[in-house]
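Box 3.1. Reading complex inputs
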Amino acid sequence: MQLAVWTYEGPPHIGAMRIATAMEGVHYVLHAPQGDTYADLLFTMIERRSKRPPVTYTTFQAQDLGGDTANLFREAVLDAYERFRPQALLVGASCTAELIQDDPGGLAKTLGLPIPVVPLELPAYQRKENWGASETFYQLVRACAAPHVPPPGTRRLRGAVPRCNILGPTALGFRHRDDVPEVERLLETLGIEVNVIAPMGATPADLARLGDADFNVVLYPEVAGQAASWLKRSFGQPFTTIVPIGVGATKDFVAEVAQIAGVAAATANGTLRLPWYSRSVDSTYLTNKRVFIFGDATHAIAAARVASQELGFQVVGLGSYSREFGREIRAAATAHGVEPLITDDYLEVEQQIAALQPELVLGTQMERHVAKRLGIPCAVISAPVHVQDFPARHSPQMGIEGANVLFDTWVHPLMMGLEEHLLGMFREDFEFNDGVSPSHLGGHAMPRPGHGAPSELGKEAAPAAQPLPAPAAVTPHAAAGDPSAAVTGTLVVAWGADAEKELKKIPFFVRGKARRNTERFAQERGIGTITLETLYDAKAHYSR
Amino acid sequence: MSAAAAFPVSSVPGCGDAPVLRERGQREVFCGLTGIVWLHRKIQDAFFLVVGSRTCAHLLQSAAGVMIFAEPRFATAIIDERDLAGLADCNDELDRVVTRLIERRPDIKLLFLVGSCPSEVIKLDLSRAAQRLSRRFSPGVRVLNYSGSGIETTFTQGEDACLAALVPEMPAEPGTARSLLVVGALAEVVEDQFLRLFAALGVGPVRFLPSRRAAELPPIGPGTRYILAQPFLNDTARALEARGATRIAAPFPLGVEGTTAWLTAAAEVWGTPAARIAEAIAPAATRARAALGRIKERLQGKSIFFFPDSQLEIPLARFLSRELGMKLTEVGTPYLHKQHLAEELAMLPEGTMLSEGQHVERQLDRCRAEKPDIAVCGLGLANPLEAEGMTTKWSIELVFTPIQGFDQAADLAELFARPLVRRAKLMV
């Protein structure tokens, strides 16, 4: 048994639902108890779909268990077929039905429906959501495309224009909706035709045509990797291995596609702004910002490259909950010189973030909350995400516009460089320091907690006359962690008046960290009272 | 005029003997585990450990939304394939997980082991596990169990199962002293309002189940009169009666009429004179009636369709039809307890279509045919119905929002008026 409060992934049948919901003309009959319909609201609320997912649940109850749940399943399949008339039917069991062993596949086959019936074996006690999506897509592709597999040894005939399929976008996928047109744009520039996009928007009939393409573009290996391997074996279609997230990866992706398609590499860079934004002097302060990255393997690995090569951050942690991609994550972590973190326990991730004290966290919805608690800026790069990360505006992660989106999204939570510089320069200024509220709020409208309401006198007076501020709880860092001497419980470290005064000169948003580092430094050396010297010794010790 | 006479009881036909459409098929409802999401806020030193699958954990996380990050007092012990290999192993594993949990959270005084579909199907004996763990962690932590599985419970029935598990833990009231027990989780603001009203009515002592702290469970005995504040408390009522308590029959405290009748029913048991009842209730009731009057303009004559969800549907339909003049089309409920709802049914307009259970596709067909002005349904159906042009009110909000009592009557009406106002306002 595993103790879990938060799970990064749902059970595998949610993955199957993501495939069925993404497609047209597919219906999924799920042998499941009352209550499992909760999953519908992920699609209708988080992704704001205007239609119910194409899923029928058998809704068996306790009183059915002694009797004929198998018959209940048969009736549900017949009902669903009559009502929805799908082109293909998926049948399977949720975690509870797996335990009662009714064999949905066998039962559905005996009904003799005139459409392909694809049985799904999704071991709910071993596997998770992404695996379920991958397996379901693979099984559907096989069921629909296998009848068209040419005999071994057949030579591929190439048309005048190279054609490809785009594989991987699903329902509930992080920015899948907007990634697809970005990738289509890249392919269009290369003069490549798109044959089928699947599963998003595809019908079973479309899957049957997958073999008509020359090669496959795999956008999300977590979902489409397995299907692409099968298509390669069966139709001789090569597939792409580079995911075009970031400027460099997009360039490499274009080169890979051009090579596979036998065309010259070309990109329309006209609207690409990340490289210039990143070079503009305002971005200098981004240099070596320490960033922690966690998410699904594809997005985490891509983010690490963008962070380090395109924004000039320093990657201090890289991890993923995608155990299936452990090898790739380990390789990427090694390349960035950090320890890989492969876990689906958010407490471990939280611990790591707290220990590393990064200046920016890139992660999932969960890391967003961890970072909020620790007072660290954060941006979301991967599922699971909440409703705000299915935005109304065009917001891809891939391709040219994707790179622009990444720049804005990641930099936004950090303070803009000019602002940071001004705060440093004018920290002693009477109306431009952390004790005073913004002038557009009247200078005293919103006192910061811990400062008390700034008095009229305080407003007028020179900085030296400011009330001695700041229990450390003023800063976000301090609010989250415990900066006090209680950390060790043995040595209580006191602050000398000079050192305390000097500490106030450090901009408030890094003051918490400085206080903490200095105290740790003093504790480790058995220094009872922190002096000016200790403060600067610690600063020198921790400077990088 | 006695306040009790303000509403007609079974002398009017109502829906007391009306036929009920009973259906089975796909149910678009939550399982009882969802009750944890509000119960853990209510019982402040209890922890809810679901013994289930990844699906159960995923459900809780989806239902709890952002609450999951505020050091929640619930979690899931996810069964994996090793646990399925043999039952003895499963119990050891559970002990290990609980031990780790209690070490991490020494503030916990009461731990619920909550059964799920998987744990019920593999027949993991959580009641024995609870006894075993209770002995081990006694006296610091008490361990109880109940089932919130989908195969046995629908949504709010999870609260029923939880409260029923608490009843045997309630201390015995010495003697036959009379006390009032209000049963069903209510918002604290509502509890406090009721306490003030009961004091004015001369009814007391008044206690609540669940209590805010596990150690302060109310005593119970033959002198205990209990009144249900929620309609879904079948098993809890039975357990209370097994301990000698007697139910005060009343409609549920929704709307001015329901709240008046509910308070009056208790006051009459305490022998409060009618004049004092009327006087105690008048200020809040008058205020609430005035507030309702303003919203009534928007709701009067509008038709409403209820999909089954929480068992609150019948009292809500009664309130909306009698106090706001709405027309009832179909009132669906997951489970209809005829005895507890007798007063409510008698007050429903004659001929109201009632349904119990669900075949969601057929019910959607009926709803589309009725074209109600507003459909009350779960979040899985709401956006799809809106996209079809229907106005909806998502039903879970009715469980999480304080809606009982006089001062919440207008808030409750507003919940139904807002989607209509919004539809009228939007010009895009």
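In summary: Residues 274-299 of chain B form the longest helix (26 residues).
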